[in-house]
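Section handout, structural biology tutorial.
Before the tutorial, make sure you can parse a SMILES string by hand: atoms, branches in parentheses, ring closures as digits. In the record below the ligand is zinc ion, and the chain has 336 residues. In the tutorial you will relate the predicted structure tokens back to the input. Do not try to memorize them.
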Amino acid sequence: MSRAVLVAGLAVVLAMSAGQANADNAPSYAPLTIPLQLDQVPGKPIYYSVGNPGVPGKDNEGNTSNAGLVVTSDGVAVFDALGTPSLGWALLQEIRKITDKPVRYVIASHYHADHIYGLQAFKDHSGALIVAQERAGEYKENEETADEKADQRLDQRRGVLFPWVDDKTRVVPPDITFKERKTIVLGDRRLTLLSAGPAHSSSDMMMMVEPDGVLFAGDIVQNSRIPFMNSDDVSTTHWLAALSEVEKLQPKFIVPGHGKPSTEAAKAIAFTRDYIQYVRDAMTGAVQNWTDFDTAYARTDWSKYKDMPAFANNNRGNAYRIYLELEQAQFNGDKP
Ligand SMILES: [Zn+2]
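Predicted structure of the complex:
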């Protein structure tokens, strides 16, 4: 083999190991017409993109959730992969503009379509390992789960998000899962992954980046907006425990799963915790006194929350789930 061929071969291997696109391995994902934009956490090697507020559709090309990344001395960790393979690919290209370090991990806040369809681009065009809470493994394309129904959701997105979601779009399972807590030390950064589900979904988790104090919260911390917790197997007990764990880490900056990132992480955490606690307190009395849900809901003073975004959509369902959760806890507690 000539030296020129060896050198050329080495260059190809290097380019591939860095996950770089070239003419030969460029994928056929439908291009976006609205470019993906990354912002930087002030003074930190940490970046994020902010999704549009609406539901996934042609107007926003499926870009409705947030994603982020941490550039360390030993590679990149990505948090969430966005809602289409095209968006995942765009995120990978934006990362390439910032650093040529390899993408080591893509961490999924939870397995819901708007956060995971972009995993395909990372799986096929980088060496990244996909990390998620263990229950993410239940989310399979051809199976029904108690949570979001993966097959129905994919069909729906192939309709409303074509051509960005098409016949080649698939659900990529996690490579590494954890149950309660996992620490990843990557170069000069420590990533603490904390399970917080089942809450908004069965596999919710949050990621704390240290020493920067940046929290990627997924969909379970919301600020001045009523969170969605009307999922079949919601556990506010587990959710509250995760919030107090993360509060102890004293985050300085928060990137939520949707909506604007903020320096007021403590405020957002306190808002979410106070809301859950308020609903639990209201429903606890009802469950203890055998009051039916409709009566308990009507008797509760909701004035503190009723003018907040998503109250009309989410509050009653949330209260009902919490009522059922507390009723179940009481039932279990009553057993001899
Ligand atoms: Zn979401």
